[in-house]
């Protein structure tokens, strides 16, 4: 469980077969609203980042550059249930 402004890091090696996928769920608020997204999708991210950073906003996750800056154009929607 992370508090605001905390982070979590890990290392891994992408699969030779190109199918590495990690997802993250987030929950906040009194109602326990839960959302999730693909934090690493090898097809999407293998050529995009060696250090993949995400800024979590209520509207969705935002991919950031290595300095942690993000623009709205890098934000995406939460994954749909059942995806």
From TrEMBL:
It holds the Pfam family Self-incomp_S1. One of its GO terms (cellular component) is extracellular region. It is found in: Secreted. It comes from the Eukaryota. GO terms for biological process: rejection of self pollen. The keyword tRNA processing does not apply. Belongs to the plant self-incompatibility (S1) protein family. This is S-protein homolog.
